[in-house]
TrEMBL record:
UniProt GO MF annotations: DNA binding; NAD+ poly-ADP-ribosyltransferase activity; NAD+-protein mono-ADP-ribosyltransferase activity; nucleotidyltransferase activity; zinc ion binding
Domain PARP catalytic: 605-830
The UniProt record lists the keyword Nucleotidyltransferase: yes
Protein name: Poly [ADP-ribose] polymerase
Entry EC no(s): 2.4.2.-
Skewed-composition ranges (Polar residues): 223-240
A Pfam cross-reference name: PARP
Keyword field: ADP-ribosylation, DNA-binding, Glycosyltransferase, Metal-binding, NAD, Nucleotidyltransferase, Nucleus, Repeat, Signal, Transferase, Zinc, Zinc-finger
Domain WGR: 358-458
A GO term from the CC aspect: nucleolus
Organism of derivation: Carya illinoinensis (Pecan)
Region (Disordered): 38-65, 217-243
């Protein structure tokens, strides 16, 4: 049987684990302090400095087990008694604890809840919460002085888990994460309002000292060096969550990523394979789930979790094996075959309502009763969406209020509700719910007037349904085409919805509740603004570290609220930051493609009509023409020696004449004589935007980081240097590349990266000088003396350059004339 003291220890152990799993911090020393008070209040005499194996003898009773006794001994010996007993700090903590409990008991006996609240208000303290909350705040302030407000957000501080934490909001987007062990206190005595007629408080007020003592806090019992708050666990528990327990199979990851994970995980005792083994924990995949992949099929047969690459990223970052649930991609793969976006009027009825075929979104003038709300707060783990619609019957006046809510990327969490009501009641209910969820009246958003994001509330997303009618990967366009066969195949590549879907899934955009290509330009711009703020914070060391962290979290919250993602996280390193810049650039191109021609596969918007909307003449070149042979030589000759993972095969070449581009380029052609035919590579999803609008420079709201020589249009003279940016793989090996005539003029030469807004006066472009260059004696000349640097790569005479290969940058789009579009097949060796 367990002794009373042992039983109490075990109860606290259980409570400790409950608090750990609920995300609440517990300090070991505070637990000890609690135990001291609890045993005292329970009437059990506590023998000072008793070790875990020196327990007072009491009679045994039924229910005792050797396992429970062993657990008690281990916890008492190792967890609580880590600090030597009998120290001066130990004595001071015990004395302070007795005084705290005595004051708590007195307030409970003699002071009402209303009087507690009055005192807090009179001393500028937070007066919200339960009676217990109010009493705790009063005790702390009466003993040690009233707390000053949070230095970051001016919110109220409260003592919890060995720290004083802010419970306010840093901004409308984030809860404040400020915490401290040494809070500022207000000067002066604790005030007792005159209207309180309480003898106990009057007596206490007269006896209080002018100078308050400083609260003694137990030393931290956890490591907070990395921002995490992890309670010291037993060695056995720590081992069960270590990287050494990872046994993963990896499929489809780039070689560099594979080697990085293998080095870090196997260095800790884990294993990383390319094939599933008997002891494999999970299968890690990159991009879209491939149902035909042998490892995918094997994982399903073995019922292994299939997770995204960021699972390994987070495991390595946190140095432990994490749960699989929030990283699984199976649900995404299963639901990716059909995106039902059925637009009627100016909006789309959500498919979960079951009314897509029989109803439409209610519209009154410019007002559309349809909204998608988003909220992401990394400090609390919130990552939620809320969809609200009024659906009207196509054949009558019946209306329905439809709601769908849940966690982004997790269909298992959330729900739906559909209520039938009159039109007037539906509008009233819609507005009531919108106000409840956002803190703003519906009119403020619908009319774009004075909408203000409210703390802890949702924010509406701008969704532009454009011209799309329905998207289905299973439908084929059977309309006859007057285009050349080569051009028909190119158009199918450009307008293949699966390509765009894969790009959004690669960037973990919430495909389930974000129709393809419908995130508006405004949202993307807001995302860029949040990234720019993060960039400024990362480069600024003037802030206090805790303040800087809070501001980075706030900006990350804004980013992931505007760009709903399956796995939002704090953007705090350069690689992650650059990947988000690339994501927004890709979303910009998808938005352009969606707005221009949509992703409709219906025959009434044929490939010919899509081609016409590009406003760019695209003509296939005969394979036996001089231009084709020159381009093929340029491609085959200028493959850089370090780009060994793939070879290139030219499939087709198309000449380009984008409407209006020649006229804009003409002045530079006449004025700047240094003109070259140079390479530019990009994702397949970017080419609808490129062909219709030309090569463009990053927008002003985009952050500066990620552009080695500033915001401009980048070119190369070695094909493989540009081909890297096509981002092909074994499953999708065909990419598109451009050859453009570039008016370089006087060149500003640099041997290392340098961010500039534009070249110095008298210079028209920037050239990064590489250590390897095309052999100049093998250069060719094209029309009107345009230089084609088609020589084989050779070492340059430069020794001090930090760049491997040449790069060319222009800062004015009019200096570029697109000449050829190349369809290129990548033969990947791995």
């Amino acid at each position: 049987m367990l002794e009373p003291t042992e039983l109490l220890f075990l109860l606290v152990i259980i409570s400790l684990h409950v608090f750990v799993f609920s995300g609440t911090e517990i300090k070991i020393e505070e637990t000890k302090e609690l135990l001291q008070q609890s045993t005292s209040k329970a009437g059990i005499k506590r023998k000072k400095d008793v070790q875990g194996d020196q327990n007072p003898k009491v009679a045994k009773a039924a229910g005792d087990t050797s396992a429970s006794r062993a657990a008690y001994k281990e916890y008492a010996a190792n967890s609580i008694d880590e600090r030597p007993k009998g120290t001066d700090l130990d004595s001071k903590l015990e004395t302070q604890s007795k005084e705290l409990w005595a004051l708590k008991d007195d307030l409970k006996k003699h002071v009402t809840t209303a009087e507690l609240r009055q005192m807090l208000e009179a001393n500028d303290q937070d007066s919200t919460g339960s009676e217990l909350d109010l009493r705790e705040r009063c005790v702390d302030a009466m003993m040690f002085g009233a707390l000053s407000s949070c230095p970051i957000c001016a919110g109220s501080l409260r003592y919890s888990g060995g720290l004083y934490r802010c419970h306010g909001f840093l901004s409308a987007w984030s809860k404040c994460s400020y915490s401290t062990r040494e809070p500022e206190r207000l000067k002066g005595k604790w005030k007792v309002p005159e209207e309180i007629n309480n003898q106990y408080l009057s007596k206490w007020f007269k006896s209080q000292k002018k100078t308050k003592p400083v609260r003694i806090l137990p030393p931290p019992a956890y490591d907070n060096s990395s921002g995490s708050q992890a309670i010291n666990r037993s060695s056995q528990s720590a081992k069960s969550e270590s990287l050494g327990d990872l046994r993963v199979a990896v499929s489809g990851l780039p070689k560099e990523s594979m080697e990085k994970f293998k080095r870090k995980i196997e260095g800790e005792g884990g294993l990383v394979h390319t094939k599933i083994k008997k002891d494999t924990n999970c299968l890690v995949v990159s991009g879209v789930l491939d149902d035909q992949n042998a490892e995918t099929r094997k994982a399903r047969r073995m019922k292994l979790p299939i997770v995204r690459e960021d699972y390994l990223v987070d495991c390595v970052k946190k140095q432990k094996k994490l749960p699989f649930d929030s990283y699984k991609v199976e649900a995404i793969g299963e639901s990716s075959s059909m995106v039902t976006v059925k637009v009627k009027g100016r909006s789309a009825v959500h498919e979960s309502s079951g009314l897509q075929d029989t109803g439409h979104i209610l519209e009154e003038g410019k007002i559309i009763y349809n909204t998608t709300l988003s909220m992401s707060d990394l400090s609390t783990g919130v990552n939620s969406y809320y969809i609200l619609q009024i659906i009207q019957d196509d054949k009558g006046s019946d209306c329905y209020v439809f709601r769908k809510w849940g966690r982004v990327g997790n269909e298992k969490i959330g729900g739906t509700k559909l209520e039938e009501m009159s039109k007037s009641d539906a509008i009233h209910e819609f507005k009531r719910l919108f106000l409840e969820k956002t803190g703003n009246p519906w009119e403020a958003w619908a009319q774009k007037q004075n909408f203000q994001k409210q703390p802890g509330r949702f924010f509406p997303l701008d969704i532009d349904y454009g011209v799309t009618k329905q998207v289905s990967k299973n439908r084929k366009n059977d309309a006859a085409s007057n285009l050349a066969p080569e051009l028909v195949e190119l158009m199918k590549m450009l307008f293949n919805v699966e390509t765009y879907r894969a790009a959004m899934m690669e960037f973990e955009i919430n495909m389930a509740e974000m129709p393809l290509g419908k995130l508006s330009k405004r949202n993307v711009q807001k995302g860029f603004e949040a990234l720019t703020e993060i960039q400024n914070l990362l480069n600024n060391n003037a802030h206090d570290p805790s303040v800087k962290e809070s501001l980075i979290i706030d900006a990350s919250n804004r980013f992931f609220t505007m760009i709903p993602s399956i796995h939002p996280h704090i953007i705090r390193d350069e690689d992650d930051f650059k990947s988000k810049v690339k994501m927004l650039e890709a979303l910009q191109e998808i938005e352009i493609a969606s707005r221009l021609v949509g992703f409709d596969a219906d025959s009434d918007d044929s490939l010919d009509e899509k081609y016409m909307k590009l406003q760019c003449d695209i003509t296939p070149l005969p394979h036996d023409s001089e231009d084709y042979r020159l381009i093929e030589k340029y491609l085959l000759t200028t493959h850089a020696p370090t780009h060994k993972d793939w070879t290139l095969e030219l499939e087709e070449v198309f000449s380009l004449e984008r409407k209006g581009e020649f006229d804009k380029f003409a002045p530079y052609r006449e004025r700047l004589k240094n003109r070259m035919l140079l390479w530019h590579g990009s994702r397949l999803t970017n080419f609808v935007g490129i062909l219709s609008q030309g090569l463009r420079i990053a927008p002003p709201e985009a952050p500066a980081t990620g552009y080695m020589f500033g915001k401009g249009i980048y070119f190369a003279d070695l094909v493989s240097k540009s081909a890297q940016y096509c981002y092909t793989d074994k499953k999708n090996p065909v990419g598109l590349m451009l050859l453009s005539e570039v008016a370089l003029g006087e060149v500003y030469e640099l041997k290392k990266a340098k961010y500039i807004e534009k070249p110095p006066e008298g210079k028209h472009s920037t050239k990064g000088l590489g250590k390897n260059i095309p052999l100049e004696s093998e250069y060719a000349r094209w029309r009107d003396g345009i230089v084609v640097p088609c020589g084989k790569p050779v070492p340059s005479k430069l020794k001090a350059s930090e760049l491997m290969y040449n790069e060319y940058i222009v800062y004015d789009t009019a200096q570029v004339k697109m000449q050829f579009l190349l369809k290129v097949k990548f033969h990947h060796k791995r």
